[in-house]
Amino acid sequence: MATPSPNPHLSMSINGGATVSAGWAATQPRRRRTVDHSSRSCLLRPSYGSTRGFGTRRIAVRSASQKNSSPPLMTTEQEAEDEVVLESPAHFRIYKSGKIDRLNRPPVLPAGLDEATGVTSKDVVLDADTGVSVRLFLPKLQEPSKKLPVVVFFHGGAFFIESAGSETYHNYVNSLAAAAGVLVVSVDYRLAPEHPLPAGYDDSWAALQWAASAQDGWIAEHGDTARLFVAGDSAGANIAHEMLVRAAASGGGPRGGGAAAPVEIEGEPEGGAAITAAMWNYACPGAAAGADDPRLNPLAAGGPVLEELACERMLVCAGGKDVLAARNRAYYDAVAASAWRGSAAWLESEGEGHVFFLGNSECENAKQLMDRIVAFIADKIQGRKRTCGRRSPSQTYLIISPFAIEPAGGQNAFCGSIHQFAMASETEPDAVVFEAPAHFRIYKSGKMDRLHRPPCLPAGVDEATGVASKDVVIDAGTGLSVRLYLPKIQEPSKKLPVLVFFHGGGFLIESADSSTYHNYVNPLAAAAGVVVVSVDYRLAPEHPLPAAYDDSWAGLLWAASAQDGWLAEHGDVSRLFIAGDSAGGNIVHDMLLRAASNGGPRIEGALLLHPWFGGSTVLEGEPPAAAALTGMIWCYACPGASGGADDPRMNPLAPGAPALEKLACERMLVAAGQTDGLAARDRAYYDAVAASPWRGTATWVESEGEGHVFFLEKPECDKAKQLMDRVVEFISAGSPA
């Protein structure tokens, strides 16, 4: 699938808010003080998962791990250590060595007095050895003698990014302190992968104990630790749950046994679990149960019993369109249905996604959420009432939004950005069932909103290249059209090769006339000296597959027949090539099979640029999240596929797929980006073709350090120019001397 900038194409990456501080010093043992925890719990979109169909929200994976699919490139130990294994474009990149690049760092704001709210903040280092610190927020004192509730806050960011001092969280917590009239202790815990879990949990626990002990002057003078709350968003809400479990265990309560077995959760997008699991594996590599570790999946078998949660009241919040909403609701329902003696409240923000209140704090839903949190702390909202028992008061407001990071605009999901897949309602035909933020939204009714539309450029003469283009409708009944490109004619009597091109976009978005593809195909025609027929096939879900395959086949037959004047006069259809990127590369494969079985035109060469293939079994070096996302998108592009992602059109290597030896071309070039989540599958396709009895010649091209369809996003970079040179060389290789 293609992904230009601001990329409407699907690619996969893990995402989130932005980054934060570099890792702290190595973990050191610390003595812990046992304290009486009075806390209340508010989980704002917590981060929970499982191996059974649970997902993360936007995941823009680029939550996806990106592994190098071409071992030959790894010639030294140092190069192997520098292999990228997990990437969220514009957010972070994790290497095999354990090193992480935090690519997007929101400004770190200094502590001090905020004139607008009257809130004063300061930083306190809790452990000089580990560097763990907290940022305290003290609201303007209306009654100096009145003690304020204390909120211990844990920031989100999938355990990889963000900080208590970042602009994202400073601005949110500052506003919370002012609105709720509370003293906030915002914990700056150590981050993975430099400091794998349980480091983040241990730091948070130490900070909670420190806050409860009122060692700091602000807390001692102004804080009421008898009214202690814990709160967090996304991964921070996950931490809040862990704090409740630890508080119960430290008080002598049982830590395990009797928990519910993992169950499928209605409304949770299939495949999201792989994204969650991929990130969890790097955040907590020692977790024996993977995504069913009770810290990530509180409903997993053998997890701590929910009735022991050490708080009196709980508020669980979710966005109606957050992919985590189903898991968050299941957590709330399980807590409320347990023998826990507290009261729980649920708040869902209609039409909103994961941690929307951080990026859009002035919208009405964000204001309503803040009002509910303030009311919760003030004890003015009613949850499911129970008789409070032996627990010390603990009010936790959980901002439930696990491992979700907002996707960077136009980032490629297969490379590692997590895309949002919204919740579906069984009763509402307009319920959103699948969403890629800023790209598209699919409704249960089958309707689709294409949220990002690159400009459509008119055909004509391009002065810079001398290439002329025009649009031709070849089927008035379906509306199928093509855009032809004719390079500047140097020798009028010389016939030019003909290249039929199929654009990418996951079969769901893009077009032949978009700026993305016009600006790629136009230079291709000029550089290679070919007549290009770019096919504008129909898109899913309005026109499910095989519509796009059928249209592409019709476009190929039309081009080979040379019915158009440009083709008849200037094209040499005996030198016919087909090419495509991402989903278009997938179409190329289907065209080769159709040409073999239907007696189609002779095809000299096929170019598959970062082709989109998938399968139910994850290949070595393939990010699990990439495979999962492929399966989800394929379900909407081709709902009638009985084999799911193992439909031979999506997985040419599946059992029962047409024999590769029948591919109807003489030469083939398969290209991939080294850090593309599809690279392993593309390499497997190339290897299978090369090893088959097919009598053609195959070439593999891998662009080191580049992601999915990078050449569309940055055509002027050296790697894009090198790839264009290889494409031109491939086409010209068969030219007569």
Automatic annotation (TrEMBL):
Catalytic machinery residues: S234, S582
Alphabetized Gene3D superfamilies for the sequence: alpha/beta hydrolase
Domain Alpha/beta hydrolase fold-3 intervals: 151-357, 499-711
GO MF annotations, alphabetized: hydrolase activity
Pfam family, one: Abhydrolase_3
InterPro entries: AB_hydrolase_3, AB_hydrolase_fold, Carboxylest/Gibb_receptor, Lipase_GDXG_put_SER_AS
Name of the protein this chain belongs to: Alpha/beta hydrolase fold-3 domain-containing protein
Source taxonomy: Eukaryota, Viridiplantae, Streptophyta, Embryophyta, Tracheophyta
